[in-house]
Amino acid sequence: MKVEIVSADHQNKPDIGANIARKWFDIDGVDMITDVPNSGVALAVNEVTREKNKVFLVANAATSDLTGPKCSPNTIHWTYDTWMLGNATGKAVVKTGGDTWFFLTADYAFGQALERDTTKVVVSNGGKVLGTLRSERPDHEKNSFLVRWQFGLAGIAAEAEDSNWAKRLTEQEAELARRYAPIELNGFPSWHESLAIEE
């Protein structure tokens, strides 16, 4: 048996991932696609795989939509998913007293699925969700790593070294800082508490 492995960069964009899958299946004779570490791209590749009656082994994307509403007989989801993450974490936290939630959600397929699945388990176990704040990105930039936003965060973090920095912000500047907060890739930024209005 001869096995050939090919690879490509989908750039975390569903349309590019779907086009790569379509080319591989239609032109290059690929029989199976695996990996695809991005839920939005995986959902797009899932649809192309079903259409072409090929095989897709999901090893990194986590949206539970792949085994729920977008389930396909051509796709094997071989990893954790947002249902499991939401149920394991959400249930445990509510059962130990953490029954009031507010979501800071990455606004793409994985984040939306994790928020949805965790909300269901939190509410079904007696907890409540007060609201959600989604990181904002224009549609053409969703599922992309944005360096300029990282620079924006670095600028805010630098200002935040002065303990009174937030008091000097205009309302518009405070709103912009609030919108940057959910974009931090390594957890919520240390300066976010400074934006709270003291009464």
User: How many strands in all?
Assistant: 5
Name the beta content range: 5-15%
Order of the strands making up the biggest sheet: 1-2-3
Q: How many DSSP H or I helices? A: 6
What is the string of SSEs from the N terminus onward?
HEHEEHEHEHH
Q: Which structural class do you get from the secondary structure elements?
A: alpha/beta
Radius of gyration: 20 Å
Helix proportion range = 40-55%
Domain tally: 3
Mean pLDDT: 82
The coarse overall form would be flat
- Give the biggest beta sheet: 3 strands, parallel
Query: Kindly, what is the distance between the CA atoms of the first and last residues, rounded to a whole number of angstroms?
Result: 72 Å
Low-pLDDT sequence parts: none
How would you characterize the overall build of this protein?
The structure is a single chain. By secondary structure, the chain is α/β, with parallel strands linked by helices. The chain has 3 domains: 14-79, no CATH class; 82-143, 3-Layer(aba) Sandwich (Rossmann fold), CATH 3.40.50.2300; 145-199, no CATH class. Helix content is 40%, strand content 12%. It has helices spanning 14-26, 39-52, 82-95, 109-124, 147-159, 171-180, and strands at 32-35, 55-58, 75-77, 100-105, 128-134. The strands form 2 sheets. The chain has a 3-stranded parallel beta sheet with strand order 1-2-3, with helices on one face. A two-stranded parallel sheet has the order 4-5. Strand 1, helix 2 and strand 2 (55-58) form a beta-alpha-beta unit. The chain is flat. The N and C termini lie far apart (72 Å).
